[in-house]
Please model this.
Amino acid sequence: ISYDEIRERMQALVKVEVKAGETRKRIFEIPVCYGGEYGPDIANIAEHAGLTEEEVIRIHSSKDYLIYMLGFLPGFTYLGGLDERLHTPRLANPRIRISAGSVGIGGSQTGIYPLDSPGGWQLMGMTPVKTYDPDREVPILVEAGDYIRFVPVDEEEYLRIKDAVERGEYQCVIHEEEG
Model:
């Protein structure tokens, strides 16, 4: 592509008028079973923050997180807006295998592992929701610019949702609000 053609395209983009308040934001409710076998590092996160595990869960699930970008793996969410009290360094030695659905903290961000993979984030919980499913019409559940709201669930509810996901009967609650 020539310089002149790029310049013309860029000038056309600059002329596009964007008006505040005309966008809608999507907020996906993601159920999470925190702690125990689902979140083996929650005690580390709590100790690092000087909080109880219950306080960590309350803080982590008390806000909507903006999806800055997707990457590392298909559907891996890099979420911004993590409360500074929960900023926790990555593991000194990454794990060889982290299970799909794991919710973790890596420094100042939180996110969801969409596939089994290696990784170094501190794991605090797990969601039964598949953020990436190659068999879905749209394989990646969310997009950059969407928001995620973590909703704590107990193990019984986690297993109920997981069963519904596996049967193809679970739908995430999605809120749409003025942006």
Q: What stands out?
A: The first strand starts at residue 24 and ends at 34. Residues 3-14 form the longest helix (12 residues). The helical segments are 3-14, 42-49, 53-60, 155-166.
